[in-house]
Structures are given as structure tokens and as C-alpha cells.
Design brief:
42% of the residues are buried. By secondary structure, this protein is an all-alpha fold. Helix 7 runs antiparallel to helix 8. It contains 18 helices and no strands. 79% of the residues lie in helices and 0% in strands.
């Protein structure tokens, strides 16, 4: 009888531990959703101490560090979790996403490829394909990006990320006649998804229809008044229409919101060149280069520097 009681007690203790860990996890989620990331972090630590076998606990811990701009700590959590859960594809995908935002695109692609290789669920595999396609586009492997995104689109023709990203890369692979098709499908799926409107604006911008482009960037900013790319792209189109005051106002707002965007400095440099403020233009050209403009957009800033700036 004593043995039976002991076994029952052990089972009860394990159940209580799991129950308490789950309680901490739910509390940590509430803190995270309320943007109290420090409390989320301390609370999820309690959950992990009670139960180190739930991968979702590690995700929340890493995401809390990331929200606190402690990116290296977030990366370290994913790395440690991968050692515990080497077959968990989501960890590789998330670590790849961190590398993507750190502009380490080759490493990001390697990580996401691991996630794709490991994952057996086709829906998740498709999500990872979209992410890898985005990373390939950033390193200017447009064909590879298009290949990934078309696979994702064929699997799910209403995937908002696949549709929007296809709208970004079609022009780069000689399929510009398909760009608006995918982007209009994207806004049909979700009329509030502002990145699709931004890419439609960019298409009209490339076509030289700057008034139409501004209409779509206005839509972006109606949906998200703090979207820096909406301001930077609207700035360029205002600049092309001769609205220098409006262009400067927009680009200053964009840089304030997103100072790491090398493309914004390119736009402001063009405005300064037009207004004969060459010293400031050269400062922005150099800033764009320092922020790795060439990696994502090609040699335009190098050419402008050679033409306008004396070292």
C-alpha cells in the first residue's frame, strides 16, 4: 500500500509542477502582450526552472529578450534551445530571422534552410520558404527568391507574405508584368495589409507615375502613421514632382523613425544634390554606404560619391 501511495504522490507532484509551469507561462504571455517585457522574462524563467521540456517557453524567453533589444541574448537562447531540441524547426527559423534583421543574410538563409529540411509539416515548411525567399531577395539573389516564393504561392495562393514579396521581386527577374497581379491579390486577401500597398506604390514609382505612387503611400500611412518606408518612398515621389519642402519633411520623419535605413539617406542625398547642398549630400552618401546600401541595392551610392564627393 505504501508503494502505491508513493507512486500516486509522485504523479501528483509532477502534475503540479507542470501546472505551475503553465501558469507562469500564461502570466509571462500576458506581460509580453502588455509590453512589460522585463516581467515577461523573469516570469518565463520561473516556468523553465519548473519545466525545461517545453520549447514554447524558450521561444517566449528569446522573444522577450528581442523585444528588449537584447538581440545577442535572444540569439543565445535559441542556440541553447537548439541543443535541447535539435529537431525543432521553429528554433532554426527564429534564429534565422534574427540573423536576417542583423543583415547577416547568408547565415539567415542557412538557418532557415535547416528549418525547411527538418520540418515535415507542409504548412510550416511553406512559411519558412517565404522567409528564405525574403532573405535571398535582400542579398540580391532574385532568382532564388522568386523560386522560393513561387513554390510558397503555389502551395497557398492566398499567402499574404508570398504575394507581397513576389510583388517585390518580379521586376528583378524580368516578370514585371506580373507585379501588380500579385499585389492586388494581396490586398484582396487583406485590405489592411499596408506592405502590399507600399509595393504597389513602388511599382507606380518605377513606372514614373509619381502621383499614383503617392496615393498608395498615403494609404500606407493611413494604416500605419509610423511606417518609415511609407515616408521615405513618398518623399522620393514628392521630390520627383518638385515638392522639395514636402520631400524633406517626409525623409526627415523617415530617418527619425528608422535611422538604420540606408535607402533613406540615398533619397535625402538626391534632394541635397538637387538643391546644391553638396556637403550634406556627401555626408548622406557616406552614411548610406556605411549602412551597407551596396549590399542590398547595388552601386548607385558609389557612383554618386565618385561624381560629387572629393575624399
Amino acid at each position: 500500500m505504501k508503494k502505491i501511495i508513493t507512486i500516486v504522490l509522485l504523479v501528483s507532484i509532477n502534475f503540479l509542477i507542470a501546472q505551475n509551469a503553465e501558469t507562469y507561462y500564461k502570466q509571462a504571455q500576458d506581460f509580453f502582450e502588455g509590453k512589460d517585457y522585463t516581467s515577461a522574462l523573469s516570469t518565463i524563467e520561473k516556468a523553465i526552472k519548473l519545466d525545461a521540456t517545453d520549447v514554447s517557453f524558450y521561444h517566449l524567453k528569446a522573444e522577450s529578450y528581442e523585444a528588449l533589444n537584447q538581440v545577442q541574448e535572444s540569439y543565445n537562447v535559441y542556440s541553447k534551445a537548439i541543443l535541447k531540441f535539435p529537431k525543432e524547426s521553429s528554433l532554426y527559423n527564429k534564429r534565422g530571422t534574427l540573423l536576417y534583421y542583423g543583415r547577416q543574410f547568408d547565415y539567415a538563409i542557412d538557418e532557415i534552410t535547416k528549418a525547411i529540411t527538418i520540418e515535415t509539416n507542409d504548412t510550416l515548411k511553406n512559411e519558412y520558404l517565404v522567409n528564405r525567399g525574403a532573405a535571398k531577395a535582400q542579398k540580391r539573389d532574385f532568382k532564388g527568391s522568386h523560386d522560393d516564393l513561387i513554390k510558397a504561392y503555389k502551395f497557398n495562393p492566398k499567402h499574404i507574405g508570398a504575394l507581397t514579396n513576389l510583388g517585390s521581386v518580379c521586376d528583378e527577374v524580368g516578370r514585371g508584368d506580373e507585379t501588380l497581379k500579385y499585389l492586388l491579390e494581396a490586398v484582396a486577401v487583406d485590405s489592411t495589409y499596408y506592405p502590399a500597398y507600399g509595393n504597389i506604390g513602388f511599382k507606380y514609382q518605377e513606372m514614373g507615375n509619381h502621383k499614383k505612387a503617392i496615393e498608395y503611400y498615403n494609404k500606407v500611412l493611413e494604416l500605419d502613421s509610423k511606417e518609415p518606408l511609407g515616408y521615405s518612398n513618398r518623399s522620393f515621389n514628392r521630390f520627383k514632382l518638385g515638392d522639395i519642402k514636402g520631400a524633406i519633411a517626409d525623409i526627415e520623419k523617415s530617418i527619425l523613425l528608422y535611422p538604420e535605413n540606408s535607402y533613406a539617406y540615398r533619397i535625402r542625398a538626391l534632394i541635397y544634390i538637387e538643391t546644391k547642398n553638396i556637403n550634406k549630400a556627401c555626408e548622406d552618401i557616406q552614411t548610406a554606404l556605411d549602412k551597407e546600401f551596396t549590399l542590398s541595392y547595388g552601386n548607385e551610392m558609389l557612383d554618386l560619391k565618385k561624381k560629387h564627393c572629393n575624399d
